[in-house]
Amino acid sequence: MAIELKNLDQLKSMRKAGLVVADTLQLLKQSAQVGMTTLELNEIAVGNLSKHSAKSSFLGYHGFPAVICASVNEEVVHGIPNKRKLISGDVLSIDFGAIIDDWHGDAAISFGLGEVDPADQKLMDVCEESMWRGIAAGKKGGKLTDISAAIESYINSQGKYGILREYGGHGIGSAMHQEPHILNFGPAGNGPELVPGMALALEPMITRGNERTKVLSDDWTVVSQDSSKGAHFEHTYTIAPDGKAFVLTSLDGGKEQLARLGIPISDLL
After folding, report:
1. What is the pLDDT of residue 16?
2. In angstroms, what is the C-alpha Rg of the chain?
3. Which among 85, 92, 74, 94 is positioned nearest to 40, based on CA atoms?
4. pLDDT at residue 168, rounded to an integer
5. d(CA 31, CA 27)
6. Contact present, 244 and 198 (Cβ < 8 Å)
7. What angle do CA 4, 105, 99 make, to 5 degrees?
8. Is the pTM of this model over 0.85?
9. Rounded to whole angstroms, how far apart are CA atoms 237 and 14?
């Protein structure tokens, strides 16, 4: 299947969806407290979607029953919100998608509750930074796996972490999951050329142990086989018509994070 290329007006619609995603994830991080449940956080996200007259990318997707994925500790991705109370030291990963005018935005964050183990904080920091390194490497004229190599190289430079093999990033636009699939590992220089109009959701997923995972009996929740804690970060970014990057799900378009990596962002969006 061909990679969907967007014009500027379509990217502007994706930016609207991306801002809803950014606002909601910020709200959820601010709202999350020890003693809350992920089901309560899901309801906050439902309310914010309604406030912005947006639809959920996740609810009903292949039968998924919620608007957020909420994964705690060894649950790396695709956790279903439930009534388990969050406790101090938990690592919580929240994935969220929104639709505005039939265009999608998708992003994820991980953060700790209460007193966080420094090794868990480093896990999250490494995962997040690897995402930004991937975005910085995903330049016009490069190849898709330049992103993969940048993500893997940074993670491996920071210690021994498991990089999930079965899951990765994806194209996004008029549907949440589109071509191409984006691995978080592998050599640079392969795959399709990166061109203006592409919109890609980069999402490194790592654990403090090895990369092996299993899916629980709910057919959704992905956990580490060795019960090590995981982290998950994601942003939707585009190569704008002027050839510069723009992070559609970041409140500032990725300006602050990409500037320190020497990457200017587009001013078209």
Report:
1. 98
2. 17
3. 85
4. 98
5. 6
6. no
7. 95
8. yes
9. 10
Q: Give the confidence band of 41 by pLDDT, cuts at 50, 70, 90.
A: very high
234 is in an annotated binding site: yes
Average pLDDT on 123-128 reads: 98
Q: Which are the contacts of 8, defined by CB distance < 8 A and separation ≥ 6?
A: 240, 241, 268, 269
Tell me the two tokens of residue 110: 């991980």
Which pLDDT value is given to residue 191?
Answer: 97
* pLDDT of amino acid 27: 98
Does 129 belong to an annotated binding site? no
Tell me whether residue 78 is annotated as binding: yes
Which pair of structure tokens corresponds to residue 139?
A: 């330049």
Is pLDDT above 80 for 1?
Answer: no
9 is in an annotated binding site: no
Task: Tell me the residue type at 238.
Answer: T
Check residue 234 and give its pLDDT: 98
Contacts of 63 (CB under 8 A, 6+ apart): none
Band of the pLDDT at 131, cuts 50, 70, 90? very high
Taking a C-beta distance cutoff of 8 angstroms, is the pair 209, 164 a contact? no
Amino acid in position 81: P
Domains delineated in the chain = 8-259 (3.90.230.10)
| 106 annotated as belonging to a binding site for a ligand | yes
Contact between 125 and 176 under an 8 Å Cβ cutoff? The reply is no
**Distance from C-alpha of 96 to C-alpha of 102, rounded to nearest angstrom:** 16
What is the C-alpha separation between 139 and 56, in angstroms, rounded? Answer: 30
For residue 115, which amino acid is it?
E
Sign of the torsion formed by the C-alpha atoms of 101, 81, 223 and 162: positive
pLDDT tens digits for 140-195? 999 999 999 999 999 999 999 999 999 999 999 999 999 999 999 999 999 999 99
Instruction: For residue 9, give every residue at least 6 positions away whose Cβ sits within 8 Å of its Cβ, in sequence order, or none.
Output: none
